[in-house]
Amino acid sequence: MKPTDVQEPRTGSAILRTALRRNAGAMAWGTVLMGLYQAGETAFPIALGLIVEHTLRERSLASLAWSVAALAVIITTVSLSWRFGMRILQKANTTEAHRWRVRVADCGLQPVARDVDLKSGEVLTIATEDADQTADIIEVVPLLISSLVAVLITAVALGVASVWLGLLVIVGTVAILSILSLLSKRIGDGTREQQARVARAGAKVADLISGLRPLHGFGGNHAAFLSYRRVSTEARNQAITVAKVNGAYAGAALALNAILAAAVTLAAGWLALDGRITIGQLVMAVGLAQFIIEPLKLFSEMPKYVMIARASAERMALVLAAPPVTTPGGGRPSPGGDLEVDGVRYGSLRELKLHVPAGEFVAIAAYHAREAADLAAILAVKVPPDAYEGVVRIGGHELKDLSVEAVREHLLVNPYDAEIFAGTLRTNIDPAGTGRRVAEAVEASLLTDVVALHPDGLDHEVRDRGANLSGGQRQRLSLARALAADPDILVLHDPTTAVDAVTEQLIARNLARLRRGRTLIVITGSPALLDAAGRVLVLDGGAVTAEGTHRDLLATDDTYRRAVAR
């Protein structure tokens, strides 16, 4: 079953319940084994007390031998139960964290965006850190129960020796948990705020990296770095605050547990001096007082981890429970259909009307970059159909009646800033590995020189974001990927802004040749691409103001000539 086929949890509590229910079997076995481990740990000082008691009374080597054998069994039980118990729980924890990472990533990669006020960097943080911290609940609950088992066994064993010792352990444990529960609430609130601020800092640095070159271009990098420093400082200050609360919590837990252990030891010593418990029981009480510090520490830390897991689960619910920004239809466009934009009003577009028949090569000369960007966004379905006035039709079908997946299979919009991924030239051109039209796409985009430059050819390694490629090489690689996809309708937005004039001229001719008989729309101000197109539409003031061939418009339209002539 795919993640999208599962009903998404609506709240953080629902996410935690889902995680617990899904891992009930592993948690049950883990709880049994970890409970056995804690019982064995508790049995060790009890056994020592009994050994001292019987040795002093009987003074028998056989009894001593049986006692040593009993200790060996206890030690073996402790070792094996811990090993296999933690193995089961950590495997379940890791698997559950993976499931939630996949669920969050699936939401972020859906064709229809979610209506959530989070940037990609924040979603990334939720898909990693929050998913891991939510899955920690799988280990927390069994460890909590096993620690409770240890405390109860200790209380019963001491209660058998003296009711007052048993009551002291129970009352002391309740008091410790009551005090620490107040601090755990502060930790949960602080952790939630810290995670949000760290996510905002991650989103800011992601935006900076993607826009670093343009920022350098107009000198805005210093202001951007200052903005990131401010967000990062806020995250650091919040992390320090949470660390202080965590430190106070850990210190308080350690101090309270030590006080309880000391109280048990002193009480047992006083009872022994008073003759109300034996020497063997005193040894047992002192041993249990030392042992109980560890399960009490673990027991007292569990509320903190529960609050952290709940805070992370609530952040995941922001993504998983967010509704889509639009509800697309389920239809599919007809193969080889035309494209029609009828009366669209959105952003800088004003009653935009244009029609591109199937198989035509049309260039759109937008005088303003904002108009080109708005048109590309609408055709790429980045803007929901109900967010603008007017209608976009593909093959006679309205865009709102078609599924987003079907639209993008039929109509591909390649943006001017298309991402380059870590991998190879081949995997960037043909991510699906179908091998269709890769050679033709490489040739048409003039990526042949890049392929020939490296011994590995198409298998040449590409770094993240194409860091080891020039701007022109990245742009041609992106163009090759769009051409290799070979959709019915291909829209290219400024595909040659980073290449020289000669290369641009050759690419324009190659595009016309490769896409002959297939619909091609190029939003551009390049004279070479405008000249290669069969028809040019002039986009100005949000509407088409003129159309014709490039050369006719050069001869008859002064505004066009001034806008596109180089």
Automatic annotation (TrEMBL):
Tell where it localizes.
Cell membrane
Q: Which sequence ranges are marked TM in the entry?
A: 26-52, 64-82, 140-158, 164-183, 248-273, 279-300
Which key words are in the record?
A: ATP-binding, Membrane, Nucleotide-binding, Transmembrane, Transmembrane helix
Q: What is its main location?
A: membrane
Cite the SUPFAM superfamilies for this sequence. Answer: ABC transporter transmembrane region (SSF90123), P-loop containing nucleoside triphosphate hydrolases (SSF52540)
Please give one Gene Ontology molecular function term for this protein.
Answer: ATP binding
Read off the Pfam families from this record: ABC_membrane, ABC_tran
Query: Is Transmembrane included in the keywords of this UniProt record?
Result: yes
Question: Which InterPro entries is this protein grouped with?
Answer: ABC1_TM_dom (IPR011527), ABC1_TM_sf (IPR036640), ABC_transporter-like_ATP-bd (IPR003439), ABC_transporter-like_CS (IPR017871), P-loop_NTPase (IPR027417), Type_1_exporter (IPR039421)
PROSITE patterns on file: ABC_TM1F, ABC_TRANSPORTER_1, ABC_TRANSPORTER_2
Record-annotated ABC transmembrane type-1 domain positions: 28-302
Provide the ABC transporter domain boundaries. 334-566
Question: How does it sit in the bilayer?
Answer: Multi-pass membrane protein
Q: Which PANTHER family match?
A: ATP-BINDING CASSETTE SUB-FAMILY B MEMBER 10, MITOCHONDRIAL, ATP-DEPENDENT PERMEASE MDL1, MITOCHONDRIAL
Name listed for the protein in its UniProt record: ABC transporter ATP-binding protein
